[in-house]
Amino acid sequence: ETGVTQSPTHLIKTRGQQVTLRCSSQSGHNTVSWYQQALGQGPQFIFQYYREEENGRGNFPPRFSGLQFPNYSSELNVNALELDDSALYLCASSLGAAGGTREQFFGPGTRLTVL
Amino acid sequence: RKEVEQDPGPFNVPEGATVAFNCTYSNSASQSFFWYRQDCRKEPKLLMSVYSSGNEDGRFTAQLNRASQYISLLIRDSKLSDSATYLCVVNYNNNDMRFGAGTRLTVKP
């Protein structure tokens, strides 16, 4: 077990709704990255948070937003859900601002279905 | 060209076989490279980092060719438990990890 937890495990929403996904990072890790993984694809980088600030963003629209809290846990918010948002959402924690160069530990993911 | 491209697979091999996966990347400035393993409906887990000089961990050997922007993973003496999807990962910027689509391996008795 990596020590990274995510909630909820599964979620079903309808188009147009909003969703909040949560992630608790591994003890001692100050960086959280979020990924979207569609079926049969590799994870796609959404954004990263380091010490409560966004620290890089992938090619996702502004309706994908996030937060990081003082305890380094994080939330991913998605507004105006679309059918294509159906995917596994993974968070990964790591140590340091240079999260991309250090090992990332993934949580089990939240499987979001948009109907 | 995709940022990270992998052999599409699937690879179906008998136990004991040697299998090799290839991966190419587009960003010549990338500095960090990894192979992750992902079991069905599970999260990715780090298999090994890839170093410039090449590195080995038991039955697994990773190689990096910066000139050709190419990474490989060799698995010797395949076990049933090696069946999984193998993801090639390259850092795009300092904090942006780009994943390949993955190559699925099935090891059969």
Q: Enumerate how many helices of chain B there are, as a single number.
A: 0
Name the structural class of chain B: mainly beta
Percent helix range of chain B: under 10%
Radius of gyration of chain B: 13 Å
* Count of strand segments of chain A: 11
Taking all Cα atoms into account, the compactness measure Rg of chain A is 13 Å
The largest contact between protein chains, plus residue counts on each side, is:
A-B, 28 and 23 residues
Helicity level of chain A, as a percent range? under 10%
- How many strands of chain B? 11
Shape type of chain A: globular
Structural class of chain A: mainly beta
**What does the main sheet of chain B amount to?**
6 strands, mixed
List unreliable stretches of 5+ residues of chain A. none
Span of the ends, CA to CA of chain A: 32 Å
Mean pLDDT level of chain B = 92
Give the termini distance of chain B in whole angstroms.
Answer: 37 Å
Summarize this structure as a short list of keywords or feature phrases.
heterodimer; A: mainly beta; seven-stranded mixed beta sheet; four-stranded antiparallel beta sheet; B: mainly beta; six-stranded mixed beta sheet; 0% helix
Structure in words:
The complex is a heterodimer of chains A (115) and B (109). With 115 residues, chain A is mainly β. Helices cover 0% and strands 50% of the residues of chain A. Chain A is built from no helices and 11 strands. In chain A, strands 2, 4, 5, 6, 9, 10 and 11 form a 7-stranded mixed sheet that branches. In chain A, strands 1-3-8-7 form a 4-stranded antiparallel sheet, with no helix packed on it. Chain B is 0% helix and 56% strand. Chain B has no helices and 11 strands. In chain B, strands 2, 4, 5, 9, 10 and 11 form a 6-stranded mixed sheet that branches. A 5-stranded antiparallel sheet of chain B has the order 1-3-8-7-6, with no helix packed on it. In chain B, 36% of the residues are buried. The model of chain B has no long low-confidence stretch (mean pLDDT 92). Chains A and B meet through strand 4, strand 5 and strand 10 of A and strand 5, strand 9 and strand 10 of B.
